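To illustrate the input format used throughout this study, we show a single complete record. The first block contains the structure-token representation of the backbone; no residue identities are included at this stage. The design step must infer an amino acid for every position from geometry alone.
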């Protein structure tokens, strides 16, 4: 493969300098009037002023370039939708009450169990194409709409297939404790069944090496999550936790105890807990599109930032609490809802999100890093967030190849 030289980049948001906390979040390490040299999908050099001579020169006509966005929390693979629950939501029926009535996650479980692998793959593929048009080049994808062995494995296999058949790079997370399946009458028995019968297969078959669990009132308790995730850790899984979405139930303490790689949601996390996250360097993935869609308060990102928490931002794309595959709007909701500046948002979907996925070769545009980048017809990234225009992205590159 020859070398490609991208010239006339009005602003190159390099994101060099590592994971960002506090005031560093707002520093994108900008290079103006820049160029970028790529070979075999890897960045060889970046600079401004005089550039090397190569055969293939691509003129980006004074557009801006940012790293490909990393969506570090999604429930990508599922069947159906929950439009039939929308009126209930607007009438004020709570998320947990809809679940208690057998709807919510359980309604998607029913649809996903009934769907063929082809139907699931086609729907997820469509979502990935929409996300790619919004600049997402890497995504985490959770199972959790099967809650039985066959369907959880079916979801994880869809993720594995899609990882090979389309450009968005996927990282699978196994999430069998997402809700109590209808076959069980109590969480205790379900957790025991998972430990005894289910959780070894995904990691042994190379389908997932991370496990997530929904710690929430009326869903899974601290003790349930502790038992399951302790067993999972022994098998070699990395641990993530959905915590503090509606009620704060000690999730941060559990994350510290289990040395979790991240905690996610944190809409009602206390200041004490934020300090613990900062102290133990456990990143927090904020999901403001969920607050928007559930009509709930946003996480206190200002408090977490002051506490020094490593913060990332993700879509939480799913058919219930965040049916939103428009990542540009996820970032705009984040800026307004979490009261973050555009470059803070950018840090949270690039360098910091890469850290959550433990992938330090992405989320940054620097020599030796993967050439995943987005070309945007805007004067600055601030404009992308502050002006609510249609999607201003003109092209997307994954491993140096134009994919959109
Ligand atoms: O992260 N909170 C639990 N799981 C998802 C929602 C899944 C659903 O409602 O289908 C979330 O918000
Ligand atoms: Fe989620």
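Output of the design step:
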């Amino acid at each position: 493969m020859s070398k490609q030289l991208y010239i006339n980049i009005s602003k190159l948001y390099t994101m060099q300098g590592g994971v960002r906390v506090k005031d560093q979040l707002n520093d994108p390490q900008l290079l103006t009037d820049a160029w970028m040299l790529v070979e075999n999908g890897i960045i060889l050099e970046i600079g401004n002023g005089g550039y090397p001579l190569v055969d293939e020169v691509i003129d980006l006509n004074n557009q801006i370039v940012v790293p490909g966005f990393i969506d570090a929390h999604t429930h990508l693979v599922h069947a159906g939708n929950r439009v039939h629950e929308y009126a209930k939501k607007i009438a004020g029926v709570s998320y947990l009450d809809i679940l208690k009535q057998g709807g919510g996650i359980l309604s998607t479980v029913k649809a996903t169990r009934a769907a063929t692998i082809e139907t699931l793959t086609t729907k997820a593929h469509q979502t990935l194409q929409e996300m790619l048009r919004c600049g997402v080049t890497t995504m985490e994808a959770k199972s959790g709409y099967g809650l039985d062995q066959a369907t959880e494995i079916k979801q994880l296999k869809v993720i594995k297939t899609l990882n090979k058949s389309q450009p968005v790079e996927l990282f699978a997370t196994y999430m069998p404790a997402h809700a109590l399946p209808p076959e069980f009458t109590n969480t205790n028995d379900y957790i025991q069944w998972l430990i005894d019968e289910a959780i070894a297969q995904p990691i042994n078959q190379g389908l997932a090496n991370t496990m997530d669990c929904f710690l929430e009132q009326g869903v899974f308790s601290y003790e349930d999550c502790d038992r399951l995730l302790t067993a999972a850790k022994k098998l070699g899984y990395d641990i993530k936790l959905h915590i503090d979405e509606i009620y704060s139930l000690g999730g941060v303490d559990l994350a510290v105890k289990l040395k979790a790689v991240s905690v996610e949601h944190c809409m009602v996390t206390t200041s004490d807990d934020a300090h613990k996250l900062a102290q133990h360097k456990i990143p927090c993935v904020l999901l403001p599109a969920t607050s928007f869609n559930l009509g709930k308060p946003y996480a206190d990102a200002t408090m977490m930032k002051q506490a020094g928490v490593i913060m990332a931002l993700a879509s939480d794309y799913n058919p219930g609490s965040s049916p939103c595959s428009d990542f540009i709007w996820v970032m705009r909701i984040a800026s307004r809802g979490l009261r973050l500046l555009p470059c803070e948002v950018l840090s949270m979907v690039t360098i910091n999100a890469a850290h959550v996925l433990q992938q330090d070769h992405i989320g940054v545009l620097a020599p030796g890093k993967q050439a995943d980048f987005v070309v945007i017809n805007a004067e600055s990234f601030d404009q992308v967030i502050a002006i609510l225009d249609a999607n201003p992205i003109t092209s997307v590159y994954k491993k140096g190849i134009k994919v959109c």
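Structural context for interpreting the output: Residues 75, 104-105, 108, 214, 242, 245, 290, 316, 318-321 surround N-(iminomethyl)-L-glutamic acid (ligand 1) (CB under 6 Å). The first strand starts at residue 3 and ends at 13.
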